[in-house]
Amino acid sequence: MQLDRMRVPIVQAPLAGGASTPALTAAVLDVGAFGFLAAGYKSPDAVAADVATLRGLTGAPYGLNIFVPDDEVDPGTLAAYLTEISREADRHGVALGEPRYDDDWFEAKIDLAVSEAVPVVSFTFGCPDAAVIRRLHEAGSEIWVTVTEPSEAMTAVTSGADVLVAQGIEAGGHRGSFADRENREDYGLLPLLQLLRRCVDVPLVAAGGIGTGSGIAAVLAAGARAAQIGTAFLRCPEAGTSGPHRAALTGTGRTRLTRAFTGRLARGLENRFLTEHSATAPVGYPQIHHATAPVRAAGRTAGDSDVVNLWAGQAYRLSAEIPAAQLIAEMGRDLTRALADASGRTAAVGPG
After folding, report:
1. How far apart, in whole angstroms, are the C-alpha atoms of residue 330 and residue 341?
2. What is the 3-class SS of 44-111, one letter each residue?
3. Staple 22 to which of 54, 101, 155, 219, CB 3.0 to 4.6 Å?
4. Mean pLDDT, rounded, for 266-290
5. Residue 328 CA to chain centroid, in angstroms?
6. What is the mean pLDDT of the chain?
């Protein structure tokens, strides 16, 4: 299992949407942590090119993250929302994108993962059926599935998942929930880890609000085998994070959950678009994602962070603009100190 081979219990999150690069993943892998390439939003050819580039940079085992198809939308509320945000497109001199459904080339990406014998394939937004997992297992892949509640964890394990990525509500970016629904229960990371340890017997990777080695120590103590970290890598020079997003991560604004940009719940920094449209944004992924894409692209080009999805976890203020290898080294040293301090405090308490 890949978790047994890691020298540092840090997993670089997939970071779909532009921040993921082969250079970032290679930098993480080469210092003994584990890293993912993001297949989300990319064509199979683009994903294949990223895989080839990564394999030219490092021979270390790597992961590939794939989105599970999702189609929860009410046509009436979607139409009303598109009318509302059309003024954002007008403001930037672009047209809204086509609010279409697609499965993000799911089958083609599975075929690619099989043909490349990708060492670890992870899934977000759901769990593929058991037949897909068996096919990947037969190709030599290990399967990780992102879960946000105990029922999802049990479904994933029953389907054949080898590792679960337990994502707390603190995490930046999209919620990895199997279904984006209003009557959900949002679990913080520590409660989620404790609940999952009671109901499943597979290794857990913790994700959400982890920005220091001390945070890693906390989730290891709670039963995780490693910490998956995303936001802390966004300011690394190897990441493909846009200029407006990088600048926003140096600020002091607060984060909020929103469907305004993509039609799926995600955590990002507050800006005008999020503030003005979150209350009316319906469940509508990937239709709303496609509709707002030209507006967000125009904002990134113009340096207008008010219409860009500024994904960030709750601990984003702890991020720094340093190379990925340095970030991992600093977190590793902090982790060692935190574990030693905790051991000392436990010894001082003593039995009874």
Report:
1. 17
2. HHHHHHHHHHHHHHCCCCCEEEEECCCCEECHHHHHHHHHHHHHHHHHCCCCCCCCCCCCCCHHHHHH
3. 54
4. 96
5. 18
6. 94
Q: Which helix (H) or strand (E) holds 295?
A: helix 287-302
In single-letter form, the type of residue at position 156 comes to A
> Are β-strands 63-67 and 34-38 bridged in parallel, bridged antiparallel, or unpaired?
parallel
Tally of CB atoms within 10 A around 101: 13
**Closest of 162, 189, 201, 126 to residue 3, by C-alpha:** 162
The verdict on whether omega for the bond into residue 286 sits within 30 degrees of 0, i.e. cis, is: yes
229: which strand partners? Answer: 12
Assign 3-state DSSP to the chain and report helix, strand, coil percentages, each to 5: 45, 15, 40
**DSSP 8-state secondary structure symbol assigned to residue 308:** S
pLDDT one-digit tens code per residue, 229-258: 999 999 999 999 999 999 999 999 999 999
Query: Domains in the chain and their CATH numbers?
Result: 1-69+104-240+323-352 (3.20.20.70), 72-102+242-321 (no CATH)
pTM, 2 dp: 0.93
- Give which of 284, 273, 312, 229 is closest to 78, Cα–Cα: 284
Q: Rg of the chain's alpha carbons, rounded to an integer?
A: 20
Q: Is 271 left (phi over 0), alpha (psi -120 to 50) or beta?
A: beta
The mean pLDDT of 115-121, rounded to a whole number, is 97
pLDDT tens sequence across 162-200: 999 999 999 999 999 999 988 888 999 999 999 999 999
Q: Looking at residue 206, what DSSP letter applies?
A: E
Looking at residue 311, what DSSP letter applies?
B
What residues form DSSP beta bridges with 146? 165
